[in-house]
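Q: Please design a sequence for this.
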């Protein structure tokens, strides 16, 4: 049987009118972008452009803050290429250790580093043989963690073979490797070997297709090579992130970063044109 209930008192007319004041758009709204004028909540013609300009600015700021990690690795790759580290089988290292001569984001001057970038689009599945007693890491092109190698990785410092697969890979996954699938084709590799340069040079990077007869790697001492690996802080920052988003495979960016893709409204000079992909991307 249905039970008839008694409704609550609700709001008085005065209380409802007060609620409306919190909901309605005022005729003039003072903002950091100037006074914006409205009629019945609709922006007047003279305010429409100011509102769009404000939205473009806010979107640009949000895109900048969101994409700093990716722009950092675009700049890192550009800097390493200027020093001759332009292929996955070329490993730059700092002997005797890193120094303050170049522009880097976070390295210290007490460590011998090794570094390169994987290109899973060109090479397909790629093997890294990590040296023993090392501290190594692989990040994707948005600077997101992919894998630890060495002491902090599954080989526990014994050294081991790591297999990195491109996004969407559905081919063979052979045994004998610590296997990871990266969300991006480009991946940054950082190597630190407690045994110094001799141990660093035990590293091998090669396509899985060459596992039976791996190629030799080229090691470049880049300690004294002046380079800039830090992202820009002017408009060219957006040209850096254009390299990330223009040729990126769908799904490369997570939901937090995916919104940086569209070109700002009315920005005819912006580097990123969705209809004109650039040849490089993650």
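A: Design:
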């Amino acid at each position: 049987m249905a039970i008839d209930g008694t409704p609550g008192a609700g709001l008085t007319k005065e209380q409802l009118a007060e609620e409306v004041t919190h909901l309605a758009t005022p005729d003039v709204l003072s903002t950091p972008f100037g006074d914006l004028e409205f009629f019945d909540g609709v922006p007047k013609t003279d305010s429409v452009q100011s509102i769009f300009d404000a939205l473009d600015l806010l979107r640009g700021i949000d895109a900048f803050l969101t994409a700093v990690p990716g722009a950092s690795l675009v700049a890192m790759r550009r800097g390493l290429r200027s020093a001759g580290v332009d292929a996955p089988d070329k490993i730059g290292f700092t002997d005797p250790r890193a120094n303050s001569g170049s522009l880097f984001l976070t390295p210290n001057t007490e460590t011998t580093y090794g570094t390169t970038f994987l290109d899973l689009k060109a090479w397909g599945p790629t093997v890294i043989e990590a040296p023993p007693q090392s501290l190594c890491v692989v990040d994707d092109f948005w600077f997101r963690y992919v894998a630890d190698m060495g002491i902090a990785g599954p080989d526990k410092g014994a050294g081991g073979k790591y297999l990195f697969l491109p996004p969407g890979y559905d081919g063979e996954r052979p045994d004998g490797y610590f296997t990871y699938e990266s969300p991006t084709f480009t991946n940054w590799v950082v190597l630190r070997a407690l045994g110094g340069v001799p141990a660093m040079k035990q590293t091998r990077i090669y396509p899985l297709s060459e596992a039976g007869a791996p190629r030799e790697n080229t090691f470049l001492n880049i300690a004294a090579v002046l380079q800039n690996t830090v992202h820009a802080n002017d408009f060219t920052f957006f040209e850096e992130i254009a390299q990330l988003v223009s040729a990126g495979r769908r799904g490369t960016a997570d939901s937090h970063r995916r919104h940086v893709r569209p070109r700002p409204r009315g920005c005819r000079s912006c580097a990123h044109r969705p209809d004109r992909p650039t040849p490089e991307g993650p």
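Q: Thanks. Anything notable?
A: Confidence is low (pLDDT under 50) at residues 262-280. The two ends are 64 Å apart (CA to CA).
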